[in-house]
Amino acid sequence: MSIKIGAVLSCAPEAVIVAVDNLEVFEKNKEGLQVGRFLKIAQGNRDFTIATIRNIKGTNTIGLDGVPVWSFQIECQAIGTLVEDKTFDRGSLLLPVPTEHAFIVEKETLDKMFSIDGDHDFPLGKLSMNKSIDLMINGNKFFSKHIAIVGSTGSGKSCTVARVLQDVVGIAQHKNNNKNKKNNSHVVIFDIHDEYSAAFTLGKEESFTLSRLDIDSLQLPYWLMNSEELESMFIESNEANSHNQVSQFKHAVVLNKEKHNPNVKEVTYDTPVYFSIKEVHNFIENLNREVIGKLAGEDKPKLANGKLVTDKNIYFDKVHDFIANSTAVATKATSGPFNGEFNRFVSRLEAKLADKRLRFLLNAKAAGGQAHVTEDFEALMKQFIGYIDNANVTIVDLSGVPFEVLSITVSLISRLIFDFCFHYSKLQHAQEKLNDIPVMLVCEEAHNYVPRHDSAAYRASRKSIERIAKEGRKYGLSLMVVSQRPSEVSETIFAQCNNFMSLRLTNEADQTYVRRLFPDNANAITEILPNLAPGECVVVGDAVLLPAVIKMPLPVPEPHSQSVKVYKEWNEQWRDVVFAHVIERWRR
To answer: Can you tell me the distance from the alpha carbon of 117 to that of 137, in angstroms, rounded to the nearest whole number?
Structure first.
């Protein structure tokens, strides 16, 4: 039986004011009359407006007998309609008129609002206002559209992400619920602090396969890069002659791709086929040394042995010596168009090729110790979406990737996954089907590689992730964007997110930013963002019937994201450390 607490005093699209009958009614129902909880307001028929409490105001006056007389007003925001006291419809917002009765939302109504049905079939967490009720969300709308998960450090963000993904792949309490029936989920996590491996590592007897790619196991040869990524890595855009560097580097790369792939038709700068970066370096160095013979009938590059260069493909083989500049009639020769112009460019190429930290990009080896070639493309692609070991979860550990190539690494992997989903979807569309192996890309600590500011250092990764945000959904590729500083993440990406989970946010700029992202009818609930307990979060979006505050259960196993218990450790006896082990790992 619904408990009547008062009547509507006034209503407007932005606020419904309910007057509480008296002090006794308010005292009896205090637990149900808290900010963030719900009221059920009659509409004069069998339907009810459901409203969330935003603000409670109490005033008192002294009565004739000297006893204080209290009156209370509750400011609510309408969020949907309970049709015939049976089903909740978020899309219908018929506002109640003054004098209509208001009631506490009882457990039966909460069950109707949040219970499982044909569409809302994925349990996200427990309602904070009633820990016995699961918030059931629409799994298809949640995972097929982009998700934003934000929260200050220590708010439980990593545990929330891990728990959601564990529920997807069937991990619970160190057990694999899909041991003999592996599902078709494909999750790729960009893990910038190597936190998530622990959350998806089970005992051998559980038969759960995790694909973990770190700087030692990641196979990411440079020839998979497109034009923008190659130029971002090898060319400084602020140099005066960068346009010449770009044009000649492009020319050299296309020529070298054609040389090594004679069976591939119409090779372009962006075609993902093998080329030799060392040979391209030779080519650029030869252009930098080039001298043109100017005797009668020559007007071509001339080597030191007097031979004229008619086919510049020989520039790939080695660095040649050219004849000296001369103004004498018998030996007339002038500098080539790029002679001496590429000194910095060549030095940069040499430095990159010699940098052992970049071996996973510039010196990646196949199992036999040979460089990857065009025919390896299929195996290289399989590693990113778990098809080498049939793994539901692929973790790309970025913790060992040098800062200067972090953006390119993220850009390259995300673009390859996007291109795969795009072309697979097109094949499916030709058969009048949709992509049946959808992929979710999880961008942990997204502010580190898709920042709001337009910095050249992050341009490649930002462009790739923004493209997925804008176009990926159509091709079965969705994003989960995770950040402790949402105000520092690209606005384009958050603007494309349809579902939000916000844990505690203490920074005022982040709170303001998140409020702007939330839909209008959820603004009231954002007032509690700074006061959420660890693991508590506000959930809004297409997948959720109505905005709610939930408590996320801890994942088991947990990611390695827990805070160190400093005071406890400081109170223990002095511990010795084997510095040699730390230094060995540091050097490696």
So the answer is: 9
The helix/strand/coil state of 126 is strand
> Which among 209, 210, 208, 229 has a CA at the least distance from the CA of 220?
229
Helices 377-384 + 406-430 axis angle, to 10: 100
**Region 134-218+366-570: CATH code:** 3.40.50.300
From CA 33, how far away is CA 237, in angstroms rounded? 60
Residue 420 has pLDDT above 70, yes or no: yes
- What sign results for the dihedral spanned by CA atoms 316, 320, 324, 328? negative
Q: Which CATH class is domain 4-114?
A: mainly beta
Q: How far apart are CA 227 and CA 448, in angstroms?
A: 23
Q: What is the three-class DSSP state of 283?
A: helix
The contacts found for 506-514 with CB under 8 angstroms, 24 or more apart, are 506/152, 506/530, 507/152, 510/150, 510/152, 510/485, 510/486, 512/487, 513/486, 513/487, 514/150, 514/486
SS3 (DSSP) at 444: coil
Judge whether 51 and 41 are in contact, CB under 8 Å: yes
Phi/psi of residue 578, each to 5°?
Answer: -85, 95
Structure token pair of residue 120 = 């809302």
Q: Is 389 exposed, middle or buried (0-12, 13-18, 19+ CB in 10 A)?
A: exposed
Alpha-carbon span 406 to 113, nearest angstrom: 44
Q: Is 222 helix (H, G, I), strand (E, B) or coil?
A: helix
What is the layout of strands, in order, in the sheet containing 146-150? 130-138, 120-127, 548-551, 536-541, 497-502, 146-150, 477-483, 439-443, 187-191, 393-397, 210-213
pLDDT tens figures, 488-534: 899 899 889 999 999 998 888 888 888 887 766 566 677 778 888 88
Are the C-beta atoms of residues 539 and 582 closer than 8 Å to each other?
no
Closest-CA residue to 145 (of 417, 418, 479)? 479
Q: At what angle do helices 406-430 and 227-234 cross, to 10 degrees?
A: 170
Q: pLDDT digits over 97-146, tens only?
A: 999 999 998 888 877 777 656 678 898 888 887 777 788 899 999 999 99
This prediction's pTM: 0.83
Alpha carbon 220 to chain centroid distance? 20
Q: What are phi and psi of 237, to 5 degrees?
A: -70, -15
The whole-angstrom separation of Cα 138 and Cα 542 is 8
Rg, the chain, Cα only: 31
Answer for the pair 236, 242: CB distance below 8 angstroms, yes or no.
yes
Are 19 and 9 in contact by the 8 Å Cβ rule? The answer is: yes
Whole-angstrom Cα distance, residue 289 to residue 50? 77
DSSP characters for 406-440? HHHHHHHHHHHHHHHHHHHHHHHHHTT---SS-EE
Instruction: Give whole-number Cα distances, 373 to 119, 275, 291, 479, 560, in Å.
Output: 46, 8, 34, 31, 37
DSSP string, 485-510: -GGGB-HHHHHTEEEEEE-----HHH
Which three-class secondary structure state does DSSP give residue 531? helix
Residue pair 96/76 in contact (Cβ under 8 Å)? The answer is no
Domain spans of the chain, in order of start = 4-114, 134-218+366-570, 224-354
